[in-house]
């Protein structure tokens, strides 16, 4: 079992609330207040989970500058008041930032009984395999 420090536990909670507010904000037709709160909570929670220095190093690596600029630019655009455009920029930046993790996540989900069965269905399996393969290319 993985042991977490108190700040990491707090960070997991803050990140969870951030994801909840982002999801709820999108369901409520891109409510800019909920999306702004979700963005702030997500980034702060991530900083608590992995630490400020590691967060800074993750976002500001030279080969991830394009992804970081899209993600943080999307956060800024949402805060300014254009939630749909900001979320499109954020989602694109998020996929660029975390594309290295997608094959690991897909492999993990495939081992979960019900979700693994769904991901191995003929139509879905081909799409998931392409997503996993294309994410390995930089």
UniProtKB/TrEMBL annotation:
A Pfam family the protein falls into: Got1
Keyword terms of this UniProt record: Golgi apparatus, Membrane, Transmembrane, Transmembrane helix
Membrane topology term: Multi-pass membrane protein
Localisation: Golgi apparatus membrane
Any single biological process term in GO: retrograde transport, endosome to Golgi
Entry keyword Transmembrane helix: yes
InterPro entries: Got1, Vesicle_transpt_Got1/SFT2
Keyword S-adenosyl-L-methionine (UniProt): no
Matches recorded under PANTHER family: CGI-141-RELATED/LIPASE CONTAINING PROTEIN, VESICLE TRANSPORT PROTEIN GOT1B
Function: May be involved in fusion of ER-derived transport vesicles with the Golgi complex.
Name this protein carries in UniProt: Vesicle transport protein GOT1B
Organism: Anguilla anguilla (European freshwater eel)
């Amino acid at each position: 079992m993985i042991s977490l420090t108190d700040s990491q536990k707090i960070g997991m909670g803050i990140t969870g609330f951030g994801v909840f507010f982002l999801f709820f904000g999108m369901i409520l037709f891109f409510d800019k207040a909920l999306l702004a709160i979700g963005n702030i909570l997500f980034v702060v929670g991530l900083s608590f989970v992995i630490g400020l220095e590691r967060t800074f190093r993750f976002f500001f690596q030279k080969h991830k500058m394009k992804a970081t600029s899209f993600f943080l630019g999307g956060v800024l655009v949402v805060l300014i008041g254009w939630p749909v455009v900001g979320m499109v920029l954020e989602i694109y930046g998020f996929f660029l930032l975390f594309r290295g993790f997608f094959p690991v996540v897909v492999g993990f989900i495939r081992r979960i009984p019900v979700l693994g069965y769904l991901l191995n269905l003929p139509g879905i399996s081909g799409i998931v395999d392409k997503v996993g393969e294309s994410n390995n290319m930089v």
